Recover the amino acids of this structure.
């Protein structure tokens, strides 16, 4: 067993040709040189031949310039691979089988999933009996959860915001760790992480041919594996009926919220919610404001959601009256927050992250996100 | 140019790959022409070969059985181990925990049980927060679907 | 490189004994050989190895990153070995050519260096001789030699386990190599032919 004393970086699978080696071979075979030489053998002194020679020389020069710059650029960088992976989902049409598992606290839920994808549309059919026929549909900006038992479709709206990937690349380091086979294909393993401790990270396996993400691991801000999805089978370009991405006829529809985020500004939100919004003055490094949403909770209270993101991770601050104006339940003597009025964070039950609730001057603030407890507390403390 | 004595003090570093660039080249140039140093370098390299040739020994079969019995019988964890784990927490967690304890004691004496609206709303908010991550870069939609459904189920059973 | 599956680690953390068994199978040879070479009495290696894994099971919740299981496990092994040495200081390991009952010193077989200087096959006795040479090294040298040559760990992994720099690992390996060269001189001789 031979051992080296230094770690090898970016191993290339045996037999694989890098882009550089292909370009080198093209030059060695002298294809461009041949074109120039062959043109020069014909009627060198006629105007037509001079013009032909000039044109050929210009073409040859352009090709050589392109080769030189391509050679300088070399293979795609890790960031380029990441961008390609992000773009691939919206380009490809396929049917695939996945295995997914989530790990939260002491519980884990796993399921085989059959997924259908075409640009702008996605359908996920969960096979595990524990998930009782769950189907998720994405159609444009609409995200639909089908509850087969109740024949009910819960419809939400999640707009695609530009610039999040740039923000991710600004805050996170992307490293191409290695290339390895997966599902009979060669995949680059990219790790996406922040230098500082206490932030979530991701590892994705990106198919070298199509840039599709074949495996995805998400590590929470505690460094623990929180979810894992791996592709086990792919069928490319199958015929996909439009009905796969629609709510079945006759089902009840419950709209969770409408696509009205773009209309909200602070002034209108204040009128809608009936209180003046307070925002945290402290944001963890790299986080930016991502937008407002208005939610109506089960008890009928209007809440405002403010979302903040660093490109990969996010946290939300929900604000609402502590007392429900409809039914009188709420703040005053007799109210106890889940964690105490200035209490600590509690782990979320079904997803990575924490929740922290504060009551300040008649308003309840709920802070939710996958951040260390100290960070979430500092955000909460900065709301005054 | 270095003497043999000086070169020989560096041969072990060369043999393990601790030298780079000019230093490596200098050693290589010297041993090409110096039989004594070359012999010493060969001896160092062979030492590495001998170490690499040692065959690993197999763990006795009963070790796993013993480990399994110990963990399945739920041996109580040594108190020192538990104490170590407690002190592995960041200091802020102690302060937060202490504050929560004090406040919880005070609140418990004066306050009424929590209305069900808050617990339900936290699940609502958690679901909403997860949903908004659907179109985030690199989002794992299959896993998100599981989390969304679990949170919704948790709310619906309250 | 740590190739333990983080999903296995996560399942083990949730109480899945079978998953922990898979982790054991994937790491036992490395940990056992590390323990065996770090203590004076190899017959205690099995017990100490068992202790490593039981403690690992009990402490899984303190593992900060599922992808760093092997480094974390190795640190547990390191601590357990150090604790056992504190309780029972090691006797000096004599390094001499082993002899048989008939009192005639048995000559160690010198490996055939002429065939392939980078790879040799050692007899059992020669292996024991080399192992004893390793055990006679000071602890800080023995650790790095054991991890690098016997376990096949990369220098960066060793640095992570021991909490020292890459350069310090290489320096210790070099000093150990020099010390071992002197101890193993009888079997490093050039061929007489």
């Amino acid at each position: 067993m031979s051992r080296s004393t230094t770690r090898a970086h970016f191993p290339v699978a045996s037999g694989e040709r890098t882009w550089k080696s292909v370009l080198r071979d093209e030059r060695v075979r002298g294809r461009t040189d041949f074109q120039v030489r062959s043109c020069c053998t014909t009627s060198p002194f006629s105007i037509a031949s001079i013009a032909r020679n000039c044109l050929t020389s210009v073409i040859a020069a352009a090709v050589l310039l392109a080769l030189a710059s391509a050679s300088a650029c070399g293979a795609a960088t890790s960031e380029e691979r990441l961008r390609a992976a992000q773009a691939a989902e919206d380009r490809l049409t396929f049917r695939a089988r996945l295995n997914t598992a989530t790990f939260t606290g002491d519980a884990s839920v796993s399921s085989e999933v059959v997924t259908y994808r075409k640009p702008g549309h996605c359908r996920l059919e969960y096979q595990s009996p524990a998930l009782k026929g769950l189907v998720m549909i994405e159609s444009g900006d609409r995200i639909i959860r089908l509850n087969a038992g109740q024949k009910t479709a819960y419809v939400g709206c999640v707009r695609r915001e530009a610039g999040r990937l740039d923000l991710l690349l600004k805050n996170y380091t992307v490293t191409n760790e290695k290339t390895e086979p997966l599902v009979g294909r060669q995949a680059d393993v990219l790790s996406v992480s922040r230098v500082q401790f206490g932030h979530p990270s991701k590892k994705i396996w990106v198919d070298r041919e199509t840039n599709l993400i074949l495996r995805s691991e998400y590590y929470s801000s505690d460094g623990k594996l929180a979810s894992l999805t791996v592709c086990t089978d792919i069928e490319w370009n199958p015929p996909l009926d439009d009905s796969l991405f629609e709510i079945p006829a006759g089902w009840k529809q419950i709209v969770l919220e409408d696509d009205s985020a773009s209309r909200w500004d602070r002034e209108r939100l204040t009128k809608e919610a009936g209180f003046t919004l307070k925002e945290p003055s402290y944001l963890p490094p790299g986080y930016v404001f991502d937008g407002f949403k208005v939610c109506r909770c089960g008890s009928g209270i209007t809440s405002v959601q403010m979302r903040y993101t660093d490109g990969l991770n996010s946290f939300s601050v929900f604000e609402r009256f502590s007392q429900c104006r409809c039914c009188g339940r709420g703040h005053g003597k007799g109210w106890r927050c889940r964690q105490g009025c200035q209490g600590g964070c509690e782990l979320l039950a079904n997803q990575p992250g924490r929740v922290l609730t504060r009551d300040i001057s008649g308003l309840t603030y709920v802070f939710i996100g996958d951040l260390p407890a100290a960070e979430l507390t500092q955000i909460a403390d900065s709301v005054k | 140019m270095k003497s043999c004595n000086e070169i020989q003090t560096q041969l072990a570093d060369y043999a393990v790959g601790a030298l780079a660039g000019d230093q490596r080249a200098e050693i290589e140039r010297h041993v090409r022409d110096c039989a004594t140093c070359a012999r010493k370098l060969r001896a160092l390299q062979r030492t590495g070969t001998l170490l690499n040739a040692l065959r690993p020994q197999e763990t006795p079969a009963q070790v796993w059985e013993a480990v399994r019995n110990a963990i399945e019988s739920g041996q109580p964890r040594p108190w020192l181990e538990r104490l170590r784990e407690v002190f592995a927490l960041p200091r802020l967690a102690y302060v937060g925990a202490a504050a929560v304890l004090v406040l919880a004691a005070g609140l418990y004496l004066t306050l009424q049980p929590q209305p069900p609206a808050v617990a339900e709303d936290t699940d609502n908010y958690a679901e909403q927060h997860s949903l908004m991550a659907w179109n985030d870069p690199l989002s794992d939609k299959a896993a998100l679907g599981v989390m969304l459904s679990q949170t919704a189920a948790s709310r619906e059973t309250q | 490189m740590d190739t333990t599956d983080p999903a296995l680690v996560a399942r083990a953390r949730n109480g899945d004994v079978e998953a922990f068994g898979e982790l054991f199978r994937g790491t036992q040879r490395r940990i056992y050989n590390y323990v065996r070479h770090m203590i004076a009495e190899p017959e205690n290696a099995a017990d100490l190895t068992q202790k490593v894994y039981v403690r690992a099971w009990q402490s899984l919740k303190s593992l900060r990153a599922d992808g760093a299981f092997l480094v974390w496990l190795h640190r547990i092994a390191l601590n357990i070995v150090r604790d056992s040495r504190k309780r029972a200081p090691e006797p000096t390991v004599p390094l001499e050519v082993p002899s048989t009952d008939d009192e005639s010193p048995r000559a160690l077989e010198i490996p055939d260096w002429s065939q392939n200087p980078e790879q040799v096959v050692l007899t059992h006795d020669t292996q024991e001789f080399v192992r004893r040479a390793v055990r006679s090294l000071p602890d800080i040298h023995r650790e790095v030699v054991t991890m690098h040559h016997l376990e096949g760990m990369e220098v960066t992994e060793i640095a992570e386990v021991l909490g020292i720099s890459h350069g310090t690992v290489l320096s210790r390996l070099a000093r150990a190599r020099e010390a071992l060269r002197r101890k193993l001189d009888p079997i490093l001789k050039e061929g007489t032919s």
Chain C touches chain A at residues 1, 6-7, 9-11, 13-15, 64-68, 118-119, 148-149, 152, 154-156, 170, 173 (CB under 8 Å).
